[in-house]
């Protein structure tokens, strides 16, 4: 009903008590303001003002309608303020760095939904190993990156965790027992070292446990190649559960006696932490990711 200028004029008249002053505040002539008030009264079918020689006062109906008009204009101001904030928060570019398995397994469904919700935010994906991701964050080449096992003192946003599993050929003696495996026993066997393009792999995990892999037969980056070599009897391996297909023929997976996990966390670069689109991404992921499982 009518335009916003009519409602602003009514509120200005209520505040000032003078049509002339209210007209100046709204950029109107006095005659134009008087006509606008008359149009409102005709449309609402109720008098809004009582005109006096040097001022006007609102009728009872005018006071109530002006009160609602004031609330409507305040809500409109909130809408405009939100839209202005959203313009900067919901548009722009984010350079997101990660290692291959996170891009291929963990992030795609979330990023597709994020893009549908915020189509004006461009996600540029930078793929590298976990050490490269750390370098890109430090150099601010990336705005945000997926980091493996981020230290507690770093501000990170949990994405989830992955259980390391011992992997053997189906006919291996460990497979026949179907029991959890001691890492120290696994480390003594012929070993297929699978890295997945990451610094955090079975060799580093062994060193952290005070062990060493005694007989590394081959080192490969690709998880599926490692599984093939294990199935062919080249050696055993230690591989994250998320990259092992549910239907991997000739393969047996066994938990370690002392479980080991790799934890995924999003970490921002210094510039990324101050980026409105990055904060939009982090808030979206926090709202849509399942709660991390404690270990």
Description:
The chain starts with a helix and ends in a 7-residue tail after the last helix. The chain has 13 helices and 11 strands. A hairpin with a 4-residue loop joins β1 (49-51) and β2. By secondary structure, the protein is an alpha/beta fold. α1 crosses α2 (19-25), α1 (4-16) packs across α4 and α2 packs across α3 (30-44). The strands form 3 sheets. Strands 3, 4, 5, 6, 9, 10 and 11 form a 7-stranded mixed β-sheet that branches. A two-stranded antiparallel ribbon has the order 1-2.
Fill in the keyword field for this structure.
two-stranded antiparallel ribbon, rod-shaped, 295 residues, seven-stranded mixed beta sheet
